[in-house]
Amino acid sequence: MKTKSIIDFVGNTPLVEVTNSFNNPNVKLLLKLEGNNPGGSVKDRAAYFMISEALKKKNIKKGDTLVEATSGNTGIALALMAKVLGVNMVLTMPEHATIERVKTMRAYGAEVILTPTELGMEGAIDHALELKYKKGYFRLNQFDNFDNPKAHYTTTGPEIWRDTQGEITHFVSAMGTTGTITGVSDYLKQQNDQIRIIGVQPKEGARIPGIRKWSEEYLPAIFKPQKIDSFLEVTQQEAEEGTLKLAKQEGIFAGMSSGGAFASALKVANSIEEGVVVTVVCDRGDRYLSSNLYK
């Protein structure tokens, strides 16, 4: 009997059409449901690639301890993949993270260290660096690790091209670490350089987990602005309303970054006369139940 491991079920997630929130016979709006990954988010792809490639390159070995800063989904994915691949995981994250995310990481066996909310993601990154130098932990550094976008060049991009039968005209993606949009852009542009790549960033003052605009000193090295054709800003209200619309009208239970990407993809779909617009629903909504999102 041929059996499979949990890793075999990373990727090949469904691509479904929006049917209630948008209706134009000449434009298709499609959602890639990354919550169907084993760890519940798109970050399973990058987490697997970063750890497995580090093992292949002998940068780490089984039993080593890794450290990474995270705002949530990457941490869950790393906690899962670390145990499957035989390494230990220490995660630093801002203390305002929802309790579901913290408990999930700990359930997979990771050590979670919460950093002050007011220091933001930058504070979590600084603490991860401190642990790297003080304790000798190996830092994956998802922001500068080119195995992050490689995961999406190798899997996400080809899946979107395959499942749209090469008809995709616009790809809309929330921007966090920028691994997804960079890797998918690389692949899709190689197939058809007329495909438009649209990055979604938060409007000034918006706090949307998973969507951010980096200050210059913390800008991810993997981010290549020339790979993105245009940017859209999304407000916190638009992201929240988009998330609720996904659940109530499309039956898709997701987090706020997915709502922000969806709201932006709707704008793109409404602005064109014909085409195929694809966006990524990054994760599942169950890890946000303690927040005000679904109150």
From TrEMBL:
Binding residues annotated for pyridoxal 5'-phosphate, in chain numbering: 73, 176-180, 257
GO MF term (any one): cysteine synthase activity
This protein's record includes keyword Protein transport: no
UniProtKB keywords: Amino-acid biosynthesis, Cysteine biosynthesis, Pyridoxal phosphate, Transferase
GO biological process: cysteine biosynthetic process from serine
Required cofactor names: pyridoxal 5'-phosphate
InterPro entries per record: Cys_synth, Cys_Synth/Cystath_Beta-Synth, CysM, P-phosphate_BS, TrpB-like_PALP, TrpB-like_PALP_sf
Domain of life according to the entry: Bacteria
Catalysed reactions, semicolon-separated: O-acetyl-L-serine + hydrogen sulfide = L-cysteine + acetate
Pathway in which this enzyme or protein is active: Amino-acid biosynthesis; L-cysteine biosynthesis; L-cysteine from L-serine: step 2/2
Residues annotated as domain Tryptophan synthase beta chain-like PALP: 8-283
Keyword set includes Transferase: yes
Residue numbers carrying N6-(pyridoxal phosphate)lysine: 43
Protein family according to the UniProt entry: Belongs to the cysteine synthase/cystathionine beta-synthase family.
Designated name of the protein: Cysteine synthase
